Amino acid sequence: MFILDLVLPVFMAFYILCVVVTGVFCKKIKTKYKFLYFALFELYIIGLIKVVVMPIFILNQASKEYFLTHIGKKAVYAIQVIPFKTIYGNLMSLSMAGIVQVVGNVVLLMPVAFFMVWIIQVKKKSIVYGLGILVTVLIEGVQYLINVLTTYPSHAVDIDDVILNYTGYLLAILIICLIKKYNKPFFDKVRSVFLK
Predict the structure, then answer these.
(1) Mean pLDDT over residues 129-152, rounded?
(2) Domains in the chain: how many in total?
(3) Rounded to two decimals, what is the model's pTM?
(4) Where are the alpha helices (DSSP H) in the chain?
């Protein structure tokens, strides 16, 4: 078995490479966004890949045959489609892992809302709300595809993840709108940190 993962040294090396390329890019091309915006966005994207895609388990032929014989293909192609089943189970277990799973899924897409609504200020509501759904469905789709391609269930594909991700995304939009409405100077100050 081979495990593909973004361990910390690889993560940092990849991030530093991205930041260097972005630094060169920002000097050559005029953009209204500061280097900090791109650096944080890249950190978030690489972190997102680490959290939702990694690790990927790649089995050798003998391990694959053993797994499929004893566990079966149902585990590979399994999708949990009953809404709130996993959420309820995680919250009722009162285990730290279950609570971290729920909170982590809520927080996962909040930075996307931050970049879209606070910094870029996309005006079209259909794009803002549609992007949240698109990203969370894309994440679950990639996880399912990895499971199918590796014939090993590296990730749980769950409708509750979509629900929690999108709930967090909407919650972030609400918080941003409230800050903009009730503390506009703070809203503008934070925004100016990321813009020229």
Answers:
(1) 94
(2) 1
(3) 0.90
(4) 8-28, 35-52, 61-70, 73-77, 85-93, 96-107, 110-113, 125-150, 159-182, 184-194
